[in-house]
Amino acid sequence: MLKILIPTLMLIPTAWGAPAKWLWPTTLAHSLVIALISLTWLKNMSETGWTSLGLYMATDPLSTPLLVLTCWLLPLMILASQNHTALEPLNRQRMYITLLTSLQFFLILAFSATEVIMFYVMFEATLIPTLIIITRWGNQTERLNAGIYFLFYTLAGSLPLLVALLLLQNSTGTLSLLTLQFSDPLQLTSYADKLWWAGCLLAFLVKMPLYGVHLWLPKAHVEAPVAGSMILAAVLLKLGGYGMMRMIVMLDPLTKDLSYPFIIFALWGVIMTGSICLRQTDLKSLIAYSSVSHMGLVVGGILIQTPWGFSGALILMIAHGLTSSALFCLANTNYERTHSRTMLLARGLQMVLPLMTAWWFIASLANLALPPLPNLMGELMIITSLFNWSWWTLALTGAGTLITASYSLYMFLMTQRGPIPAHMIALEPTHSREHLLMALHLLPLVLLMLKPELIWGWAY
Amino acid sequence: MNPYILATLLFGLGLGTTITFASSHWLLAWMGLEMNTLAIIPLMAQHHHPRAVEATTKYFLTQATAAAMLLFASTTNAWLTGQWDIQQMTHPLPITLITLALALKIGLAPVHSWLPEVLQGLDLTTGLILSTWQKLAPFALLLQIQPVNSSILIALGLLSTLVGGWGGLNQTQLRKILAYSSIAHLGWMILVLQFSPSLTLLTLLTYFVMTFSTFLVFKLNKSTSINMLATSWAKAPALTALAPLVLLSLGGLPPLTGFMPKWLILQELAKQDLAPTATLAAMSALLSLYFYLRLSYAMTLTMSPNNLTGTTPWRLQSSQLTLPLAISTLATLLLLPLTPAAVALLTL
Question: What is the domain extent for residue A249?
Answer without folding.
Answer: 1-454
